[in-house]
TrEMBL record:
It is a peripheral membrane protein. It comes from the Bacteria. The gene is fliM. GO terms for cellular component: bacterial-type flagellum basal body; plasma membrane. Keywords: Bacterial flagellum, Cell membrane, Cell projection, Chemotaxis, Cilium, Coiled coil, Flagellar rotation, Flagellum, Membrane. Belongs to the FliM family. Residues 241-268 form a coiled coil. GO terms for molecular function: cytoskeletal motor activity. One of its GO terms (biological process) is positive chemotaxis. Signal peptide: none annotated. Residues 254-322 form the Flagellar motor switch protein FliN-like C-terminal domain. This is Flagellar motor switch protein FliM. It comes from Virgibacillus massiliensis. It holds the Pfam family FliM.
Amino acid sequence: MADEVLSQNEIDALLSALTSGEMDAEELKKEDKERKVRVYDFKRALRFSKDQVRSISRIHENYARLLTTFLSAKLRTYIHISVASVDQIPYEEFIRSIPKMTILNTYSVYPLEGRLVMEVNPNIAYAMLDRTLGGAGSGLNKVENLTEIETILMSQLFEKASEKLKEAWASIVEIDPVLEEFEVNPQFLQMVSPNETVVVVSLNTTIGEATGMINICIPHIVLEPIISKLSVHYWMQTSSKDRDEAAYEKLTKNVQQAAIELKAVLGETDISIEEFLQLNKDDVIRLNNTIESPLTLAVNNQPKFFVQPGTYKNRLSVQIMEEFKEVNEGHE
């Protein structure tokens, strides 16, 4: 543990107590030599490093963007989803933290073992349902009185959204999320032991005028086979290996064949509208370039090279002399 830094007031109070005899310096030395014991709560065992938690957060930031796009197209209303927090807590604490009656979707994620849970605030779930049925998307909490049709419609929507979870996790592992259960009472949901460590990803969600949270609970047993892949070292190692060489070669070839416009600029000048209207045959327009100055070769209207004019095989041509480098003129 790092040493604590005392404020000036605390230092003054400590010196005063030592001077007055209220504290014994020898006793303080004795206490300092004794072995310090830090309380460790086995119920809140931290089984994921900060690095691994950051990787999970990064995956679900991508998932939040994908889910936002999917629901926006599906519900045709304003959608905004973002990662609020990523925490590791005991499963029992997660169950206690969610409402007594809520929307719970349980997914299997083959080939990984175990299941994960997506808890959706009823306001958000009913806003989705309302938009699906052509309503304005107002939130309503009547989770205790779900009809069979409402249950089927919600299940279908969350089942289709599971494809975005698969896409978000593709950079780490290929999973096949399948919606197995649709539940409203968390007391009936016992996936792992109460003290099992789970990662809870909380998503701030806005659908139309309704706001709420979507919580994704991922037990340790699900992530255990891929823990080594949740490190920055793994991401750095695989970033170059994941490149599709065939697609890269095809993209390079297509870029090389792209047409660009080359334009040799003889010079430029400014004239007034009146002068332009009075131009006649054989009039001479004075440019800002001298006859000894090189021309500028522009690529898609961007100056790139200095060139000199000439002919090549009886055709007007230019020869590249040097690269064009912009010079920022100073102001006096």
